[in-house]
């Protein structure tokens, strides 16, 4: 058995359960939709469709059952899976737990069960086991970046499919940056009319990416589809709308929200990957503009968390601007750092009043943290530690261990990457709870997230190559008990797991 992420407890018992065309799947109430998904996911490889029934029978049956008494011990995402020679029993307090139990069941089957093509001459056996399982962390995330290279809807779907097999439950999508605005906003059509078609081909040519053209955007209908598609896999899409920096595409589309309208308006060709003077001018009109954007974003994304970026704002440009200096005096602020903080607070209050919660990169700590904010700690652990000590929730996403756009082997042997070196073993060694936190503070660590920034990643093959198997390691860091983490046994399980990825046609990096 090569389960990834490793479950909390797993006892192997004698014998096997065999799935055949006559096996039924029994479910009632809230379990019915999870039973349907199990039938759906097994059908392509097995070539038959299991019958779905209401009442379990005592042989040749897989029963999925919601049992709310399990909540106290296992939470909503945990499950108990018992496989005997005659029946499979899967129980959870919530449909999410049943879904994760199904992912485990898929991994107990031969690797071919994960494939999309019918496989002949195989016995679909599951070893008899008793598994009790629940995640260590509530936030188990990955980030993708269609702002730098647009990612077609079908590629996002495949990305979500593979995430689900690893029990990830958050996909942050970096929709906006200097190089592109990728989400339709009805009130401001130029954001995509102009901002989704930014020309940075010169930049791409220089940096080797010879993939498809970078431009494109998601319509609101496509977004609704992706949100639903993710939710069926118990994944919440966390939208990221960058502000007040990484906003070049928005400013080119609507120069009046920027500092230097004349200059940027004449500069529609993007020449840099790095954040630059395309920083918003946080006048009241700009605050309103971005809040209007967030109103449409909230309509599209039902999840609690809305990410507003907040990183790498070059506030030097506010220092040099007479208009921004006047604004600082008018708002009775001390300096540019406080103006940054004031701007984030406007967004925080706006989101909070609508029942949502702001998430931002750790720069939102400068000049004072907004009351309801969740901090995503990327420049190391410090931001997360400071925020958790101040009673704020945090998600750990440090460049040291979780930047999947970094090299995973010697640079001369790898496709060009942004820099750094984060091999598989380093990801596996990551501990999301900083040792500086006491137990009370540690409770604010919601979990962790790996970032796949898109500057150098133009195709799905490359995207998967950079993500796997490092994401398999990250999945275990975020799901499995800390006490059971051990690299060599993980590598042994991973060898089998890679066969699953191979049948799933994931272009992982070979070990
Ligand atoms: C970041 O990598 N600028 C969050």
Structural class: alpha/beta
Let me know the largest β-sheet. Answer: 8 strands, parallel, barrel
Estimated radius of gyration: 24 Å
Name the CATH homologous superfamily of the largest domain.
Glycosidases
How many extended strands? 17
- Globally, the shape reads elongated
Tell me the strand order in the biggest sheet: 8-9-12-13-14-15-16-17
CATH class of the largest domain: Alpha Beta
Task: Walk me through the structure.
- The chain has helices at 32-46, 71-74, 95-108, 153-165, 190-193, 201-206, 220-232, 248-253, 261-265, 284-300, 316-319, 322-330, 336-353, 382-389, 399-402, 424-428, 439-442, 460-467, 470-479, 487-503; strands spanning 9-19, 24-26, 51-53, 61-66, 79-83, 87-92, 124-133, 139-144, 170-174, 176-177, 180-181, 236-243, 305-309, 357-361, 374-377, 394-396, 445-452.
- It is α/β, with parallel strands linked by helices.
- It has two domains: 9-133, Chitobiase, domain 2; 139-503, Glycosidases (TIM Barrel), CATH 3.20.20.80.
- It has an eight-stranded parallel barrel with strand order 8-9-12-13-14-15-16-17, surrounded by six helices.
- The model has no long low-confidence stretch (mean pLDDT 94).
- The structure holds acetamide.
- Acetamide is lined by residues 311-312, 361, 378.
- Acetamide binds at residues 311-312, 361, 378.
